[in-house]
Amino acid sequence: MESKQKREFIPKISDAEKEYFVKYDLRNYFMRDGASYSDDKSGEKGSRYKFRDGSVGTAYELHWSKGEGFLAIVSPNGKWRYRNRFDSERGDLISYVMKRDGADYIETCRKLRDELGTHHLIDQKPTDDWKQRELEKAAVERNAAKLTLTETFEKTLSTGYATLQAGVENVQRHWNDAKEGFSQFLAMRKLDDDTQRYWRKDFRNEPEFQYDETYTRKIPTNNPGGVQFPMVDPLDLSVTGISRKGAGRSGNGYGIVAKGSVKNLVIMTGEANDPKPNYILYGENQLDPMSLWQVNRKRTDTWLVSSSGGPGERELAGLYKLAKDHPQAAWVFVGQNDKASLAIQNKVLPAIQEGNPSARIKIRRPEDERHNDFNDVLQNKTQSAEKVAEFKAALKDLKESG
C-alpha cells in the first residue's frame, strides 16, 4: 500500500503574529499601496478620535486620489483600524489585505508573515513530543527539497488552476461584462486620448452593474467610472484575475483585486500587438508603465507588464517566462520614489535575469524625487518632504549594501 504524500508542515499563525499585524502602522502600509495624507489638519498631523468605550486615540486622514478618503485610527493599546468616510467599509490590516487580494484569512496571514517578516514570532513550542518531531522533520524535508530559482519558477508555471477553476470562471464573467472605450478615470489621471486609443484592448470600463461576492446576482458597481485590467496566465494569456482601479463610489480612490482572482501579471501588448517586442516596461501597478510610455516616446514595439502591488510567486514566474521567451527585449523597471519600490525592485530584477541572464535592464524613476511616480509627473503631483527623505535614506542603504 502506497503511503500518502505528506504535505509540507507550515506553522500556524501565532497569537504574537496576529497582534503584530493589528498593531502594524496602517499609515505606512496604505502609503506603500499608493495612499497619501490629506492636506487638511486631520491628515499627517492627526486628530483626536473618541471610541465608543470612552477611550481616546488618534485618527489620520488619507486618500487614494482626491477627496477625504479614509481614516487610519490608532487606539490607546496600539491597535490600528481603518474606516472609510463615505461607506461602511472598515477593518484592520488583515481584512484590508483580504479584500485587496481576494484571499482568505489564512492565505492573507501567511502573506503578511512573509511581507512583514514575522517568522521570529512563530509559536513553535510543541504541545507534545509528536508535534516537536513533526516540526523537526518538516525542517529537514524543506532543506532537502530546496529548489533553485529556475526550478521554483518552472514549478509555479506548471501548477494549474484546477482547484480554483470556479473562481477563475467567475472572474472571466466579470471581465466579459466590461466594455472597451474611452475612460474618464484614466483621463483624470492625465492619460491622454492617444495613449488610451493605443492600449484600448488591454483595459475595459467597469459596467454599471457588477456581480456580488457570491457571483449569484448583480448589484450596482462599487467602482463607477472605473477601469479593469486583466491578469493573464503566462502560458496561454487566458484571464485569471482582474485588477480594478478607479475613483470608487465615494470618489476617494478604489483599487482592489476582484474576488476569486488568481493573481498573475497584467500583460498589455497594445494596438500593434508586436509578437517580438523590443522593449518591456514593468511597473508595480498598471498606471506606472502607461504613464512612462506617454512621457517617453510612445514606441509601438513595446509591451507593458505590471503586478497589482508587490509581485507574488505567479507574477515573478511570469516575468521569468517573458524574459526567457523574449531574449531580444530590453527591460525597463518603472520604479517609484518610495521605500516599497526598492523592495519590489529586489524581487523583480532577479526574476528577469533568471529568465535571461543577458537581459538589458534599465531602472527609471522620476528624476524629481518630489514626484512619487510617473503618473504624478503627468499630474504634477508632489509628495511630502518626509517621504522624499525616507526614500533617499532607503536608496542609500540599498547602494551601500551592494
Give a count of the beta strands, DSSP E runs of length 2 or more: 17
Largest sheet: 6 strands, antiparallel
Mean pLDDT: 84
What's the tally of helices? 14
Radius of gyration of CA atoms, rounded to a whole number: 22 Å
Structural overview:
It is a single chain. This protein has helices at 15-22, 26-32, 93-101, 105-116, 129-144, 149-158, 165-177, 184-188, 193-198, 287-295, 313-325, 339-355, 374-379, 385-401, and strands at residues 36-37, 47-50, 56-63, 70-74, 80-84, 90-91, 204-205, 209-211, 218-220, 227-232, 239-246, 254-257, 266-268, 279-283, 302-306, 330-334, 361-364. The protein has 402 residues and is an alpha+beta fold. Helix 6 packs across helix 11. The longest helix is centred in the C-terminal third of the chain and has 17 residues, at 339-355. The termini are far apart. Residues 1-8 have low confidence and may be disordered.
Descriptive keywords:
402 residues, alpha+beta, six-stranded antiparallel sheet, five-stranded mixed sheet, 14 helices
